[in-house]
Amino acid sequence: MSSSKKSTNVSLTTLQQIKQQGEKFACLTAYDACFASILSEAGVEVLLVGDSLGMVLQGHDSTLPVTMEDMIYHTQCVKRGNKGALVMSDLPFMSYSSETQTLENAAALMRAGAHMVKLEGGAWIANTTKLLAERGIPVCAHMGLTPQSVNRIGGFHVQGRDTGQAQLIIEEAHLLQDAGANILLLECVPKSLAKTITDILEIPVIGIGAGPETTGQIMVLHDVLGVSPITPKFVKNFLIESSNGIPGAIEAYVKAVKTKAFPAQEHSFN
Ligand code: KIV
After folding, report:
1. 130 near 179, Cβ under 8 Å?
2. What is the pLDDT of residues 66-102, one digit of tens each?
3. Contact 45 CB / ligand 1 (< 6 Å)
4. Cβ of 218 less than 6 Å from ligand 1
5. Which residues does 234 contact at the CB level (< 8 Å), separation at least 6?
6. Ligand 1 atom at minimal distance to the Cα of residue 220
7. Distance 265 CA to ligand 1 centre (A)
8. 188: pLDDT strictly greater than 80
9. Residue 178 and residue 74: Cα distance in Å, rounded?
10. 40, 66, 163, 266: which has the highest count of C-beta atoms within 10 A?
11. pTM of the model
């Protein structure tokens, strides 16, 4: 495996340039200093302090129990280990329900070391996105399968399969870009829908279970390392083939994203 480049002070401008050049960037979740260091040294451009920590670290069956205290603690840990990647932190379930609460919580994550915050939703988060953007807090809007709404959705299912639902996702993606979102994240949508949205939006789109055409790809770290108890279709274990342990697996993931070898057809939904 050839050595990959350390991510040097990745910013939103870097990600926008990658999109304009028709290239790809790699993202992974990170929850502690040690992995933040390994991932950013291996060339991962975006470290997501995801509320998936509720499932992979804490053993819950959803992300709902994750608190602001959890997110602040893990964001601080990731900040200490990070070597130049952009750090994005999740606003957890019910932490952006009112304007005051949103501003206080987003500010707390930024003070803890995040460079931007991520929140889940469609049209209903447009005002929140505008509120944060106007105050200098960059926003990633998470659409498609939104795990904080798992009880409403009725499970972890692919979204946007029928034409009406796909059209709604496209319209809401536009709305969130217009409201000031800097990145859109699409989880578990058909690859053709992800391609359409990536092509029509100006901002970079990051995909997970959304096919190969998005500008960025993201995975949960524990999935890439094959230690998660469940393995969804879109997951690939990069540790199995690594001859250099965890750093080798992460470098292989970065390379596979950038060369468009991952995700392959078998990791995508049609
Ligand atoms: O919390 C998380 O890890 C996420 C990813 C699944 C994108 O939101």
Report:
1. yes
2. 999 999 999 999 999 999 999 999 999 999 999 999 9
3. no
4. yes
5. 188, 208, 209, 263, 267, 268, 269
6. 3
7. 21
8. yes
9. 31
10. 40
11. 0.97
Give the distance, in angstroms, between the CA of residue 102 and the centroid of all CA atoms in the same chain: 19
Question: What domain count does the chain have?
Answer: 1
Which are the catalytic amino acids? Answer: 187
**Closest ligand 1 atom to the C-alpha of 187?**
7
CATH code assigned at 257 = 3.20.20.60
Nearest ligand 1 atom to the CA of 52 is 1
Tokens 């789109």 correspond to what residue? 205
Q: Does residue 2 lie in a domain region?
A: no
Confidence at residue 3, expressed as pLDDT on a 0 to 100 scale: 45
Does 62 count as an annotated binding residue? no
The answer to whether position 4 is within a domain reads no
Residue 7 in any domain: the answer is no
Confidence label for 150 from pLDDT (cuts 50, 70 and 90): very high
- Tell me which residue range forms the domain holding 142: 12-267
Tokens representing residue 13 in the block:
């401008």
Mutation to probe ligand 1, out of 44, 63, 150, 220 (largest number of atoms < 8 A from CB): 220
Binding residue per annotation — 118?
Answer: yes
90 lines ligand 1 (CB under 6 A): yes
Q: b/e for 18-41, b at 16 or more Cβ within 10 A?
A: bbeeeebbbbbbbbbbebbbbbbb
- Please check whether residue 179 lies inside any domain of the structure: yes
Cβ of 139 less than 6 Å from ligand 1: no
Give the model confidence (pLDDT) of 207-251 as tens digits. 999 999 999 999 999 999 999 988 899 999 999 999 999 999 999
